[in-house]
Design goal:
It is a single chain. The chain has helices at 2-6, 9-15, 30-42, 57-66, 79-86, 91-101, 121-134, 149-154, 173-181; strands at residues 18-21, 46-51, 69-73, 107-113, 138-143, 185-188. The chain is α/β, with parallel strands linked by helices. Strands 1-2-3-4-5-6 form a 6-stranded parallel sheet. Helix 4 (57-66) links the parallel strand 2 (46-51) and strand 3.
Length: 190
């Protein structure tokens, strides 16, 4: 894999970019991720991580210390709503986010804004309170899109958001305003 990734090093060098480990969930394979990051760093290639942070704190912190940058998804501030939407609570995720904000690795929190799940005015206020409690200074709001809809259809799987209208940047501006009034810097889109 490293031999293949090295081929794009001129592009990484020119753009200031590198390799982003994402998934699925890259942290489900921590030994591989750690070895890959070590090999990439030997080649002078930046390694970033995109994660839901729903792994043991030990695994999370070991991998976080091995990457140069991390994006962490925060899907819901409320444990019960998070569990209803994802199948797991958010307690472990919130502990990992709090720990990540105290580390030297730069971290950006991302909130995928999903219609009917986390896009109400009450949700905006709940996220603002949680982000301030965590000590987060910035967040990215990711408007809902339908990029995965066709994959569900091809796999003949039920898609809960079938036909749901995609959100545009302007559709999350009220959410951004609430967070900004709470002192959190907001970027819409990733």
């Amino acid at each position: 894999l490293v031999a293949e990734l090295i081929k794009d090093k001129p592009f990484y060098d020119e753009s200031g970019g590198g390799v982003t480990l994402t998934g699925g969930e890259a942290l489900l394979h921590p030994a591989f991720v750690l070895a890959l990051c070590e090999a990439l760093h030997r080649e002078g290639i930046h390694a970033a991580l995109e994660t839901a942070a729903c792994v043991s704190e030990d695994v999370f912190l070991r991998v976080l210390s091995a990457v140069d940058f991390a994006y962490i998804d925060l899907k819901h501030y409320d444990d019960a709503r998070h569990r209803a939407g994802t199948g797991v609570g958010n307690e472990l995720i919130l502990r990992n986010i709090a720990a990540s904000l105290a580390q030297k690795t730069p971290v950006v929190l991302r909130i995928p804004v999903i219609p009917g799940f986390n896009d109400s005015e009450a949700d905006f206020a709940g996220f603002a309170d949680l982000l301030n409690t965590l000590g987060a200074k910035e967040v990215q709001l990711l408007p809902f899109h339908q990029l995965g809809e066709s994959k569900y259809h091809r796999l003949q799987l039920n898609y809960a958001y079938d036909g749901q209208k995609q959100l545009r940047d302007g559709d999350v501006s009220a959410f951004a305003s609430v967070l900004e009034r709470a002192g959190i810097q907001v970027q819409i889109g990733g």
